[in-house]
TrEMBL record, chain A:
Stored SUPFAM superfamilies: MetI-like
Similarity remark: Belongs to the binding-protein-dependent transport system permease family. CysTW subfamily.
An annotated GO BP: transmembrane transport
Name this protein carries in UniProt: Spermidine/putrescine transport system permease protein PotB
From TrEMBL, chain B:
Superkingdom per UniProt: Bacteria
Upper classification of the organism: Bacteria, Pseudomonadati, Pseudomonadota, Alphaproteobacteria, Rhodobacterales
Record localization: Cell inner membrane; Cell membrane
Keyword Lyase in record: no
Assigned keywords, A-Z: Cell inner membrane, Cell membrane, Membrane, Transmembrane, Transmembrane helix, Transport
Pfam families recorded: BPD_transp_1 (PF00528)
GO CC list: plasma membrane
Record PROSITE patterns: ABC_TM1 (PS50928)
Family: Belongs to the binding-protein-dependent transport system permease family.
Name of protein: ABC transmembrane type-1 domain-containing protein
Domain ABC transmembrane type-1, first and last residues per copy: 62-251
InterPro entries: MetI-like, MetI-like_sf
Bilayer-crossing regions: 66-88, 100-123, 129-153, 186-208, 228-250
Length: 324, 267
């Protein structure tokens, strides 16, 4: 674990070969250090997922597939089949897919305009974007929690400007109740899928801009000007010149953000209805929360990891095929 | 280039939505009472004194956050430098493996890495210690200095290196006189990126700290269960201030559009 592994003893290396041998030594030292820090944690997750749970929160090493059976078939299999955890995985995929798509769709026009600004303007916007991007999920959830809260947020605002009354008078209010966005008397956004997806897209929108920025800023302005001089309307230019040339970065950004959102914990635990909680929440509960079952938490982590890996792999294959 | 009206309106609207939750949190810090209301009631600045001075919980948490953020980003730069340098010198198999390993924790859902680190530190003596927290964040965020330093190394003019070589400079001298000075802005940028993200990180630190210490984000999450208090909003303001300062410094001393991958030929 110590850093001294990265600094091999030079005195033992014969004079002529010193630089090359030293470089190899440093490389091997780094490899060992990074293997411990970056790879071993995942090996622990994999090993423990096959471990045995002991009553009372402990576990021991072993090789059993109980936890995987529980995930895919339910704890009571073979008497009855339960798809509770498959549903959780489904909600993980569903929320992450919508969240990343919305973020990328809104980030695309923004990034396009951003790259048309002067260098100074771009720098200022980038500082704002990076500050927002690095802001902890905990704060963002806190902000949206206030904005969506019944007492001082959006519901109170809608009530105040008479929108709630208008909807009731028109008889449309029942529709909002049906989709779970209103209580009998007023609008209610916590907890709802709407709030979850809203907060998720907000969370990754700055990432989406940063990811699309290189591609759009390398777009040759001569191409756009040529299309404009030939009489194409701005909308036409976007759809025939800009969009096709950034098709792959758009797809790549959506995929990366999707994988990132698969692991969101705070947003889902605060904004989603308990019946719609995702795998990340369930992992948290198993490892540190209410249910305390480390092997099951590990098994769910492995499944989440494999899911993320599969999507990244499929994405890479698709974009390679599309790039040809 | 002049922006069309639609462009300006769209950018302004996006910026407003981006700032909305941040502004609301910031304004809530002024609340005189214990509850988070917006607009703030009975405005006061005493929450700032509570956060920075009078409440030991928040002061300790802030101290831990600062130690972990600075320590892990410095360590992350130390990990990233040789990796980026090897990759730039000669992209051999071993160098690629090293760089790939550094990038791995950043590329997977962080909750999985956090769970794994929690297990690993529980098996050593690291669980719940600050140094394990520092090492964990260094491994998680070393990918950022790796990227910025690689961009920096690529921007070095090969002619300078050739000139140094023809004048008989050894590798060490070239490194000290050409490579290091030209990459310092990129190194510092990488350091800031890692620092700001470490400062704000939640889920990995949650599993690694194992409730034996708290950083500010952990403390906020713990307090969430008892409802919001305006003191938490002060923490948010502090964090935004740190981020904006760090990235403004990067923009001031480095080339932010280039770091983010903009094309240099057209600015």
């Amino acid at each position: 674990m110590s850093l001294s592994a990265a600094a091999p003893d030079l005195s033992q290396v014969p004079e002529p070969d010193r630089p090359r041998e030293a470089a190899l030594g440093v490389k091997l030292g780094m490899l060992a250090l990074l293997a411990v820090l970056c790879l071993v944690p995942f090996l622990f997750v994999l090993t423990i997922s096959f471990g045995h749970k002991i009553e009372g929160g402990g576990w021991s090493f072993g090789f059993e597939t109980t936890q995987y059976k529980r995930f895919f078939l339910g704890a009571t299999w073979p008497e009855t089949f339960q798809d509770l955890y498959l549903q959780k995985l489904g909600y993980s995929l569903w929320f992450a897919a919508i969240g990343s798509l919305v973020a990328v769709m809104l980030a695309f026009p923004f990034t396009y305009y951003l790259t048309r600004l002067g260098k100074r303007g771009q720098t200022v916007w980038l500082v704002v974007l990076l500050s927002s991007l690095s802001l902890s999920e905990v704060f963002i959830v806190m902000g949206w929690d206030i904005l969506l809260s019944a007492r001082s947020g959006l519901p109170a605002l809608l009530d105040g400007i008479g929108f709630t009354g208008l909807m009731k008078d028109l008889g449309w209010f029942q529709w909002f109740r049906d989709i779970g966005l209103a209580s009998p008397r007023a609008f209610k956004f916590k907890t709802s899928g709407f709030a979850t997806v809203l907060c998720m897209s907000y969370l990754v929108w700055p990432y989406a801009v940063i990811l699309l920025y290189p591609a759009l800023s390398r777009l040759d302005p001569a191409l756009i000007e040529a299309a404009r001089t030939m009489g194409a309307r701005p909308r036409k230019v976007i759809s025939t010149v800009v969009l096709p040339s950034v098709r792959l970065p758009l797809f790549g950004a959506a995929l990366l953000l999707f994988v990132f959102l698969l692991g969101t914990y705070v947003t889902v635990s605060v904004f989603a209805d308990p019946s719609q909680h995702t795998l990340a929440v369930s992992i948290y509960d198993s490892v540190r929360g209410s249910t305390l079952n480390a092997p099951f938490g590990a098994a769910q982590s492995v499944i989440l990891l494999i899911t993320a890996g599969l999507f990244l792999f499929a994405g890479q294959t698709l974009s390679k095929a599309g790039g040809k | 280039m002049r922006l069309s009206w639609t462009g300006r309106i769209f950018m302004t609207l996006s910026g407003l939505v981006l700032l909305l939750p941040i502004l609301v949190v910031a304004a809530s810090a002024l609340n005189g009472g214990r509850t988070m209301l917006f607009p703030p009631q009975d405005p006061t600045l005493s929450r700032f004194t509570e956060f920075f001075v009078s409440e030991p919980i928040w002061r300790t948490a802030l101290g831990n956050s600062v130690i972990i953020a600075l320590g892990s980003s410095a360590l992350g730069v130390l990990f990233a430098w040789p990796a980026a340098y090897f990759l730039w010198k000669k992209a051999s198999g071993l160098s690629k493996v090293i760089a790939g390993m550094l990038a791995l924790p950043f590329a997977v859902p962080p909750i999985v890495f956090g769970v794994g680190l929690g297990f690993m530190w529980a098996f050593s003596i690291g669980l719940g210690t600050l140094w394990a927290g520092i090492l964990s964040h260094a491994a998680l965020f070393a990918a950022l200095p790796l990227v910025t330093i690689s961009i920096g190394l690529q921007s070095i003019d090969r002619a300078h290196l050739d000139a140094a070589a023809t004048m008989g400079a050894t590798e060490a001298v070239t490194f000290r006189t050409i490579i290091l000075p030209q990459t310092i802005p990129y190194t510092i940028s990488g350091f800031f990126f890692a620092m700001v993200l470490s400062f704000n990180e939640f889920i990995v630190m949650f599993f690694v700290s194992s409730s034996s210490y708290a950083t500010v984000t952990l403390q906020i999450f713990n307090s969430l269960r008892n409802g919001f208090t305006p003191t938490m909003a002060v923490a948010a303001i502090t964090f935004i201030a740190v981020s904006v300062t760090a990235f403004s410094l990067v923009a001031r001393f480095g080339d932010l559009p280039r770091l983010m991958g903009a094309d240099q030929s057209r600015t």
